[in-house]
Amino acid sequence: MANDASAVFDTLSPAVSKGSPADPFTPPADSSLWRKNFLLGAATASYQIEGAVNEDGRLPSIWDTFSAIPGKVLAGDTGAVACDHYHRWEADVEMLASLGLEGYRLSIAWPRVMDAAGAPNRKGIDFYKRLLNRLKEKGITTFVTLYHWDLPQHLEDRGGWLNRDTAYRFADYADLMSCELAGTVDAWATLNEPWCSAYLGYGNGHHAPGLANDRFATQAMHHLLLAHGLAVPVLRTNDPASQKGIVANIGRGTPNSDSAADQRAAHLFEVQHNAWILDPLLKGSYPQDLFELWPGTEPLVLDGDMETISAPLDFLGINYYFRTNVASDGAHGFRDVPLEGVERTQMGWEVYPDGLRDLLIGFKETYHNLPPIYITENGMASDDEVTDGRVDDTQRISFLKRHLAAVDQAIKAGVDIRGYFLWSLMDNFEWAFGYERRFGVVHVDYSTQKRTIKRSAELVEKFLQERKAKA
Ligand code: FCB
Hints:
This protein is an alpha/beta fold. It has 16 helices and eleven strands.
């Protein structure tokens, strides 16, 4: 029975349900989302979807190493197969195009495209050439992230992001990729979420490479931002027509009470999550309050580094997921105080769209040189199942609608926001949570690799069709 129904709904081009004007996704008539030039797309990342970790000369990455250590990833999952996108990319591009999505944000696996001596790996590079050429043929706007956390293991063996040399190796990698792929990339993002790489990777050890030391985190962050700053002029030279930027995750911290101590705690939370990255990029300095939170952790900064890091950007990518309610920890910092009775996702993250709006408006006030913004990730995990060939992801539909409304409010308050990428195109390897947490607007059955379009994707498609018809 299920097979009959799934034949209708899990094909690459599902019939779009007509829906009613009052469907649970379509934005109101006055929403800026109806503007034809507001880019609506979906995002993925190499290690989370590609699989094929030993193929065509790909070298090990820190995530191969980390996920092989028992206890680091839920259920012992690894990215070895993931969504098998390395082999199924053509069908995946068809699927993306059939959903009418206008933009695709993907990342390149550094260990796939260069050998340990820094020489090009032709087979790996050709994979991305084929993929990007096909996306351009389909008229899809391409956002390419150079570093979405899969550092070559051989660089980690020499200190990884604690070693300043890694920043220069990154610039070499950016040079190679932008020479090879110029003309097929609309926007380059140097790094995805340096906060996660630095803090989760080197500060608390929840992510690869799994080190836990605050001083490591600040030094890793400095080298990550330096890598970004060194790469931007290289990208400008090799691929002048494209946009250059970086992607930052941002966090909303709200105080648990009106007390001055809790207000300070919420401020410090946002310094640690947002200003730590945005201040060096947009003001050319680290926020001093960070070192109140982590005394004695100032990174080693050489002359000229802050100028390199704060060179102008064409765009800033913003990833937003949830807020954290915090109180003072009685010392220098903050502690989480989870709120009761609020809506949460499968990750346990609170659904809090106002946080996105408020942060964006706040950034515009704080940073006079705030570049145009793309929301490069937003979405939620739910325990989605295929029933009779369908996935009714009701909570996600409502989540997306409310977050897009928050984006619209920020635009109306004067923030220059040019697009929004759903996280994610399809269910994938959710880092330390493995395959259990499903973020996709397309469901993936990992035993068969069958893709099933979720209801959320159908409704996004319907909206995009209506928008096109109006233009
Ligand atoms: C972000 C990551 C992305 C994905 C989402 C849920 O921090 O950039 O790869 O895992 O979270």
